[in-house]
Every structure is written in C-alpha cells, then in structure tokens.
Design a protein that fits this description.
The complex is a heterodimer of chains A (107) and B (167).
Chain A (H helix, E strand, L loop, with lengths): L3 H8 L2 H12 L5 H5 L6 H13 L3 E6 L2 E6 L2 H31 L3
Antiparallel strand pairs in A: 1-2
Helix pairs in contact in A: 1-4
Chain B lengths: L10 E8 L3 H9 L1 H4 L8 E3 L6 E4 L3 H5 L9 E9 L3 E8 L3 H6 L2 E9 L5 E8 L4 H7 L10 H14 L6
Antiparallel strand pairs in B: 1-7, 2-3, 3-4, 4-5, 5-6, 6-7
The chains are: A mainly alpha (107), B alpha+beta (167).
C-alpha cells in the first residue's frame, strides 16, 4: 500500500518532477529516451525512476526487450481528493462569505 | 513554414491499490449493481466470455439530461476473461459522432492481490488514433465527469468505505 509520504517524498525533487513532465508530454518512454537531453547520468535517472516507481507515480511495462515507463496520475488524484479539495473548498467558502458580508454592509 | 508534431499518447496506464479482495474488485468492474455506484454511475452490461458483448447503459443523470434510456453510451466486445484477474475488451464511447468515428480502443483490467488484503488494479487503455477518447479518459473532474484517475479514486473510496467519493 503506497502512503502519502512516499508520494510527497517522490514529488519533492525537481529532477523527478521533470521526469514526470517528460512522461506527461510523451508516455511510454525507455530509460534511454528519458535520459536524452538531460544533464543527468543514466544511473541518476534510473535511480529517480526507481523512487517514482516505488511511489507508484511511474508504472513500467515490458514491450519486447524494452522497458517502457508510464506516468500513473492516480496517486496525485488521491492526494488531491484527500487534501487539496478540502482546503480549496474552505477557501472558496470563505470568499463567498466575505462577498456576502461586504454586499450586505454596502451603504 | 514549419509544423510542429505533437506526440500522441497511445497508451495510458492507471494503477490504484485498494483494500479489498480481487473478487470484490472484479465484481465492482463487471456488475451493473456496482458500476452504478461510482464513476459515471452507468450500469455495465457484460456478456463475460471471449466474443461477448459489452455495453455501458446511461445513468439516471444522463437520462435526465436527455440521453436515450434504451441505447448504450459505451459499447465494445469482450476479448479475454480470466476472473478475478484479467479482463481485456474493446471500448468505444458513443456520446458524439466524433467519438463514434474514432472507433474501438482496447482496454485491459489487471487485478493482482498484494499482501495484507490489498489488491492492485491496473487499467491499461490503448487509445492509439483516438485523440478525443484519450483526452476524455485522462481528464480531471468536471461537470462532464472525469477520466480514469477520477473513476478509480471513486472506486477505491467506495470499496474501502462503502460510500462513494463524489455525490
């Protein structure tokens, strides 16, 4: 079972977020493709992908001899549903309250 | 003039871990009683054998918005059935003529038991040459629904808590 800590830890790194962005732009890439154009060694990219995979943000699939990496957005969705919605709802509610109050007190 | 080619995503992989048995997850995907309770609330109608028909029927909300109650909103054909582990099918949305024109995509559900009563569900959707379908099934929540992430998050909450995530 992946917990939120694993996902937050995986996301708390610019290199790993860049790898996710690259998969978002084009899903199903090999390690070689993901390393191309980056100022990181293949070993470093491989290590970052391992962290992303442990957090389930990346899922790998074999296609013949190649290992393809896919972005799995579900853990981010779960965090959004668990955390973000809760706070943004409050914020919107607060703004609505403020608007109502300001309008009622209008001279 | 130069033109930029935007790479097309051809396969989407969505994975979720659910505290439930593989059998419960299988049931939640294939039975009309369960599929009514999460995602688009569309009852699934599966003929669960290779070559069998698949239809997703309109939900009560869809019918209230004018979708014909008798016709399916998604159709397809069952290709492989291995309960409660693997289901492969074709899948085509019928909401607009453009979606119908994109034709059938290929959808694979893989259900794997983990330790501690947790089951991994992986949904692999091959949306090659179906860009409108691809955009639709990867969409965030909206009035028009949302993609696999939204559906699977809802399914997880329903199986684990007995209550759907979205109302």
């Amino acid at each position: 079972m992946k917990d939120d800590d694993t996902v937050f830890h995986a996301l708390a790194d610019a290199s790993r977020r860049e790898l996710l962005d690259r998969l978002y732009a084009r899903d199903g890439q090999t390690l070689r493709e993901l390393t191309a154009g980056l100022e990181m060694t293949r070993q470093a990219v491989s290590k970052h992908l391992g962290v992303l995979e442990a957090a389930d943000l990346v899922v790998t699939r074999r296609s013949g001899r190649e290992k393809l990496h896919f972005l799995n957005p579900v853990p981010i969705r779960l965090i959004h549903d668990r955390w973000i919605d809760k706070y943004t709802e409050h914020r919107i509610a607060a703004l609505v309250d403020l608007k109502t109050e300001l309008e009622e007190n209008r001279p | 003039m130069t033109s930029t080619t935007v790479p097309t995503t051809t396969v989407q992989v969505h994975r979720v871990h659910i505290r439930a048995t593989p059998e419960a997850v299988w049931e939640a995907i294939t039975s009309p009683e369960w599929t009514k309770r999460y995602g688009y609330h569309s009852p699934a109608d599966y003929d669960l054998r290779a070559g069998g028909a698949y239809r997703s029927l309109p939900s009560e909300e869809m019918v209230a918005h004018g979708v014909p109650a008798d016709g399916p909103v998604i159709d397809g054909e069952v290709l492989e059935v291995d309960p409660p582990r693997r289901l492969v099918q074709t899948w085509r949305m019928l909401f607009t003529p453009e979606l119908v024109a994109e034709g059938f995509t290929r959808l694979t559900y893989e259900i794997e038991p983990e330790a501690d009563g947790v089951t991994t569900l992986t949904v692999t959707h091959d949306v090659t040459d179906a860009p409108i379908t691809a955009a639709s099934v990867s969409a965030p929540p909206s009035d028009a629904g949302g993609g696999w992430s939204v559906i699977l998050s809802d399914l997880k909450t329903l199986l684990e808590s007995g209550e759907p995530l979205y109302r």
